[in-house]
Amino acid sequence: MDCGNPTYSNKIDVSGWYVWDYFYVGRQWVLQVDKKDMKKILSKGYEGTLRLTDASPELEKKLASANSKQPITLILRGLSYYCEGSPSVSIKTPEGEKK
After folding, report:
1. In this structure, is residue 77 part of a structural domain?
2. Structural domain that includes position 55
3. Are 27 and 48 in contact (CB under 8 A)?
4. pLDDT of residue 93
5. Given this model, what pLDDT does residue 84 score?
6. How far is CA 15 from the centre of its chain?
7. 29 belongs to a structural domain
8. Is the residue at 78 inside a domain?
9. In sequence order, what are the residues at sequence separation of 6 or more whose Cβ sits closer than 8 angstroms to the Cβ of residue 17?
10. Over 50: is that where the pLDDT of 40 sits?
11. Prediction pTM value
């Protein structure tokens, strides 16, 4: 398995916010998706955080200000599993795909 290849591309609306948590070897801002939306992304009951790979500085500010009672809506477009650490998600449309 190539750990850097996307697992799938899709277009999924989710509610989420940033949490300051451990990711792999250190603390950083990571995406927490509302539990009711997590099954849209990962069907096997994963409840951990995700790494958002391509958030703009403006979106990162909004996510850091959001919380479980006031999440923001994101459209996720891709998921990658890496050999180590949490799964990663993307909000940008992969090259060559229709928006």
Report:
1. yes
2. 8-90
3. no
4. 58
5. 66
6. 10
7. yes
8. yes
9. 31, 32, 63, 64, 66, 67, 68, 70, 71, 72
10. yes
11. 0.79
